[in-house]
Every structure is written in structure tokens, then in C-alpha cells.
Batch of 2 targets.
Target 1
Amino acid sequence: MRSVLVLAGFLCLAACCACLPVMSQERAVVCIDPGHPSEVNSGLERQNGTTETHIDWAVALKLQKILALKGFKVVMTKSAEKQMVRNKDRALIANRAGAALMVRLHCDSSKDKGYAVYYPDRQGTKEGTTGPTKEIMESSRAAAEVVDGAMSRALNGTLKNGGVRGDSKTFVGGKQGALTGSIFSQVPVLTIEMVVLNRKSDADFIRSEAGQSRMAQAIADGVVQFAGTSRDGGNIK
Ligand SMILES: [Zn+2]
């Protein structure tokens, strides 16, 4: 009887010890921000049989699942597809979570095609706040290059790679200096325009379950690569 108890005790101890490294290790946090509805745009306009709000949400859920399986703690900026969240509040959610990276998912509407990865390349001002810091701009640029590279490998041959671009190239960023979600960000931040939704071939790709999965996996590859590039799990300070 005693030997059984000793054995049980030993097994319990062994099991607990096996857990210890996992339990004591802080998991890196990734904040996923499915774009829209925001104070700027509902994202509910129908384009080629779908809406931007729907596509951003569908890919976000797939990305959330993949990153959770990879061991990240995933924080979402909203909990339902049509929930309205202001762009400033989206940034504050990532800040509060101490995210190693904030990934903002969007679809473009333009004469272009394919995807592009945006980062804050200069400071902007919104509601009396000027940001982000030079440090955040640099880490965001590094993240953008890693994520764009990973997307290029994973999506090779399916969508055009528009490359890494500054927020200042966007309509809102051009006026403010940076996108609102970047101005208030205290963590590395990317805005990924996943496709050009008014282009039928791009829309056909991202409307399909397979296309959404492939996009989520491509972004996840980049997040994993970036989050592994610094000692504290990607939280570059
Ligand atoms: Zn958008």
C-alpha cells in the first residue's frame, strides 16, 4: 500500500515538475484586430458577394486558432463580427494586453490588387495625441518586413505582393501622419490589407474557405517568425 502511495506521489511530483516550465513561462501575447465596423467605416458595403467586415472577421478567427495552437495568448479587439470598436480603443486593447505584436486585418478597395503590409513610418496626431514613438515605428517596420516575407513565401503564385508600405501612403495616414490605430499604439503594429476586395479575382480567393485558411496561415507564419526574433518572445522594448 505504502509503495503504491509513494509511486502515486512520485508520479504526481513528476507530472507537476513537467508542468512547471510551461506554467512559469509567460506566453507571448498577440493582439488580432479584425477591421471594422469603426467610427470611420462600417465595412459593410457589399463587394463581389461579400463585405470587408466579414472577411476580416473570418480570417481573424482562423488566425486566432492557429496562434493559440502555437502557444500564443491571443487577444481580440472585438468579440462579434459586427461589433463597433473605435480605432483608438483597438490600440488601447493591444497596449493593455502588452502585446508583442498587434495585427490589424483589413481589405483594400482600389485599382491595385493583392496584399500589402503597412507600418507607421512617421508620427501622426489624433485627438491631441502624437505617436507612436520612434522605437515602436522601428519595431513595427521590422515586423512588417518579417510578415511580408512570410506571406510572400506562403501565398506565392496566388496574390500579388504589394510589399511593405508606410502608413503615410494610406488615405487616413496621409492626412494624420499615421493611421489612428498606429498613433495610439505602444506595441509594434501592422495593418495588413489582405486583398483588394473590389477586384473579383482577389475577392474570389478570400471568399473561399481555403483562401481564408491560406491567408491566416501565411500571416501566422510571419507572426511566429517575428515573435521568435527577440529574447522576451518578440516584445521588443
Ligand atoms: Zn478596412
Target 2
Amino acid sequence: MNEPSAAIPRQPAHSAVRPTAADAPSRTAESNSGAATAAESMSLLGVAALVDHAAELLDGVTRRTPLQRNERLSKLTGAEVWLKREDLQPVRSYKLRGAYTLMSQLSPEARQRGVICASAGNHGQGVAWSCARLGIDGQVFVPTTTPRQKRERIRELGGPNIELVVVGETYDAAAEAAAAQAALSGRVLVPAFDDLRTLTGQGTVAREVVDQLGRAPDVMVVPVGGGGLITGCGAWLSVHSPQTRLVGVEPAGAACLAVGLDAGHPVTLASVDTFVDGAAVRRAGDLTLALARQLGFHEWVGPSESGRWTGADGAAVRDAAVDPYGPAGRPRPTLMSIPEGQVCSEMLALYQTDGVIAEPAGALAPAALRRGPRDTTLRVLPGQTVVVVVSGGNNDISRYSEVLERSLIHEGRKHYFMVSFAQEPGQLRRFLDAILGPDDDIVLFEYVKKSNRETGPALVGIELGDPDDLAGLLARADASPIRVEPIPPDSAFFRYLV
Ligand SMILES: Cc1ncc(COP(=O)(O)O)c(C=O)c1O
């Protein structure tokens, strides 16, 4: 188990000290390493001031997206849950805030050189949109995993100003290629998260929320990829709304910020589940991790028996189920990692109940409020005001069948089995009569009769009416002469099926 790393000095959240010139990086900084390295030691107060500056730059440029009360999640939690609808930005995600903040501060000479970025799909749209608006030429590098819908949107939004380059199988591979090309071409790199200009642009979401609500929310829930949105929002809230509890949500299959916080430095994950493509990042940023440490995530003591971080084991929680508030009632930032299937269930609820089209990363934050195992459910107090960022809505329609499948499996309603049938007539009827329950449905059946053997295996997929019906089905299978073997969800065969 990992211990929390040593605390680094934290800026008092409500300090009256103004940021100094040394705090703030040059607002026109445009080298490719740019403000990021210089600002690693920057105070949260300085970052918050730059968020205010970004808000000025974005005024009249980005859409002031709606903050909508959500009946479903409010009912579920007993809290007042509000959705910040960043999926309704012109590029259908908050990503243009950071891209435009950075690009609008470039000098005429830098604009002339053009820009370059790597993107899983949404940042590229923010860059493309800003290129068209500012009259800058740009190249967007995306990996082959970027859905077609996002590639098309990048081309449409950037028009003649944008060249799309598809390279590598992961975001990180595309980022490497973009950095190499930037060094060769002299184009200005526009980082997706690890740059002060980018993350302070993203931080304007929190500022806008407090303005729209007219007061500080009790809790703000934000999705996490490389950490730009959470650190920009977190820095601003820590100064202007220290009573707000900040919650970051990572996908379990790509929890790079949690792993980096555990280690005390950015760690490259050996593998990532790319399903939540907007937030499937292999390595948190240097700057974003340093800021996350300042925000106090590393100080978090979780609810597990040991009272410490529970380690980098996928769906483990860094949650505040027991005591989200520290001494003197001061909220502690919380980081959670939640399973991809939980995100799928939330995508479907957003679609079917609320009429909101969210992409997987867009549904990440609201998914944390779903009722489920304690470790992956964010507990909020009844009556609290909870703001949840729906960060993006660029969902490719062809993904919904996978979303449905993953959701059913997550909810315990869909299971796969290998069933060994004796090679004689009437066996299937026997299986249906003796083992299947009245509300269970066969959704997959693959069988090839092998006449020279005594038994023949069939692959059977069953959708249960209720997840609790599984125990009865397995008991009936045990009592029957037909051999029924569940296919474990963590097996290679299961992964092949789904
Ligand atoms: C829709 C959406 N949500 C969340 C994220 C994660 O953002 P960050 O890298 O700022 O943590 C991204 C990143 O691209 C995204 O596109």
C-alpha cells in the first residue's frame, strides 16, 4: 500500500496576499516549454489570478453554458445536483477554453509560425475552432483510436486553417509525434493540459459556476484526464470558494493522477483502457500533478480500514465517505477512480432520462453519484448543493451498442457461459426448462453440433431480469446434469466477447 507522500507547503486558501510578478508567468509566453516549467512552483493564488485573466480573454468568445438542476441525481442523492453543461459549447466540450486562452496570448510572430497540438479528439476541436477564429494555421495530431466523429468535427471546425494528422495508437504516441514535429517546424505547441495557459482557461468553468449559482457550491465534481480542468478549477476554488469540496473523477482504467499522487511524481501507466477516450491519459502532467499536490489531494486520508490511500488498484476509492471534512470543517479534495461500466450506465441515464448526449468522459463526473458499491459512489450530504461538470458531448453513435453491453455487465445483468450439451435431442429444451428463470433472456447462442463427440459446447449469453437472479440460476445449473461454466469478466475470452 502506498502512503500519502510528504506534504508540500500549501498556500492558505483565503490568504489576502496578491500574486506577485514572480508568481505569474509571462502572459505572452510562447516557447514550447512555455509557462509550464516556470510555474511548477507557482502558488494557487497566482493560478487563480490567471484564471480571472483567462475569463477576461474568453468573455464573449466561449458560451456561458447552462447550469441546470438535475431532478434524477437530486432524487438519487437527496442533494441539490446541478449539471454544468459544457457539452453545449460550440465544440461540444470545455476544451476550447484552454486552447483559446493560450492561443489568444500568442504574439503576431508566433501566430505566423502556426500551432500544433496532440489530442484524443476534444482538445483538437478547441484548437481547430480557435485557429479558425484567430486566423492561425494549425496541425492536429490524433491517434488512430480517436473516433471518426471527432476527426470529422476537427476538420469542420478548423476548415482550411487545419491539417489533421492521424498517428500512433494512443494519445501519448500522438503527443510524441506532435512534439517532434513542433521542434522541427517551429510551430507553437498547444498542450492539452500541462500548460498554465491551458489549465487556467479550463479553470474558468469553476468561476462561471460560482457566478451563475450566486454562491459557492458545497461540492464540485470534475472529470480528470491529464488534470488540466481539475487543477484550474481547484486553484480558483481554493482561493475564492475554500468552503467548496473539490472531487476529481478518473476512469479506473486510466487513473494516472491517482497513481502519480501515490508515487509523488508522474508515472506512466503500463496500460490504459481507452474506452473513456477523452480522459484516457497514460501520464499526468508535471505541472498538473504539482498543482494537484498543492491542492491537497496527496493529504487525503481515505475511508478504508487503514485510513489511508487504498493504493492504485483500479476501482479503489480515494473517497471521503467517512469524513470528507477535515479539522475545522474544511473540505478535503477527493479523488475517485470509477469503473468504465459505471460510466456507461450514467451515459444511458443521461440519454434516456435527461435527454443529454454525453461522451464517456462527459459522463465521468455524474457517474460518481450513481448508487453502487461504496468504493465507487461519492457520498454527499442531503441538501448540499452539488455541481457536476458534464464536460463533453462528442459521442459517436456507433458506440452505443458497446455502452449498453458494458452497462449491463456492470449492473450484473448480463453474463456469458460455456454450456456443455449432451449430443442428443431435447437438450436445449431441458436447459431452458431446468435452468433459465422466467425473466431471463438468451441474448447469444452459438453452437455447432459435433456428431463424433458425446458433448458439444455452446456459448450462451444471458440477460437477467434482475441481477439478484444470478444466484438462483447458478444453483439450478449446479443441480442439473448440464455443465454450465460462467466466463469470468477478467478472462481474455470475455474481453474478446465484449
Ligand atoms: C470531455 C472531456 N472531459 C474530461 C477531460 C479531461 O480533461 P483534463 O485533461 O483537463 O483533465 C477531457 C480531456 O480531453 C475531455 O475531452
